[in-house]
Amino acid sequence: MKKSILITGSTDGIGKLAALKMVQGDHQLYLHGRNPDKLNAVIAEIRKETGHQNIEGFVADFSDLNAVQKMADEINAKVTTLDVLINNAGVFKSPKTLNRDGIDIRMVVNYLAPYLLTYSIKDKLKKSKEPRIINLSSAAQSSVSIGLLEGKVKVSDQEAYAQSKLALLMWSFHLALQEPQIATVALNPGSLLNTNMAREAYGKFWSSAEKGANIIYDLALVTNANEMNGKYFDNDRGEFGNAHPDAYDASLVDALIEKTNGILKVGN
Question: Is the pLDDT of residue 199 over 80?
Answer without folding.
Answer: no
